[in-house]
TrEMBL record:
InterPro entries: RNaseA, RNaseA-like_dom_sf, RNaseA_AS, RNaseA_domain. It comes from Maylandia zebra (zebra mbuna). One of its GO terms (biological process) is defense response to Gram-negative bacterium. This is Ribonuclease A-domain domain-containing protein. The keyword ATP-binding does not apply. Transmembrane segments: none annotated. Keywords: Disulfide bond, Endonuclease, Hydrolase, Nuclease, Secreted. One of its GO terms (molecular function) is endonuclease activity.
Length: 130
């Protein structure tokens, strides 16, 4: 089983750094359908197998939202658009490394297909302390 190609292309890269946001988003052709820039794109600093395991026992499914929360924490790079409303090819991003993050994904079958958001462990469970 492989991670869904689009999810992997847009969100999984063990070697990603804060400085590579512009290059990688352009190289991977990560844009909205109308060719405007995504406001934020998050890269999970991990190998695909670890991300996949969120749906294979290393995650908890929330029936209310339909999302799955990772039980392990991840390091991520969050790329934020510098200029709202920018369009391809003028997407300029600022990257930040965030650590100790729970990732929240929507899955189809046993594979993540959508990155919803990231949380600090203290923020999961709707703000209740773990």
């Amino acid at each position: 089983f492989h991670l869904k190609k689009k999810f992997r292309r847009q969100h999984v890269d063990a070697k990603m750094t804060e400085k590579l946001c512009n290059t990688e988003i352009s190289n991977r052709n990560i844009y909205k359908i109308d060719n405007s820039c995504k406001e934020t794109n998050t890269f999970i600093l991990s190998i695909p197998a670890k991300v996949k395991s969120i749906r294979r026992g290393d995650g908890s499914y929330d029936e209310n939202s339909g999302m799955t929360y990772s039980t392990a924490t991840f390091r991520i790079i969050k790329c934020k658009l510098k200029h709202q409303g920018a369009r391809k090819p003028s997407c300029q991003y600022e990257g930040r490394l965030l650590t100790n993050r729970i990732i929240v994904v929507k899955c189809e079958g046993k594979l993540p297909v959508h990155f919803d958001r990231d949380l600090l462990p203290s923020e999961s469970n709707d703000g209740e302390q773990l």
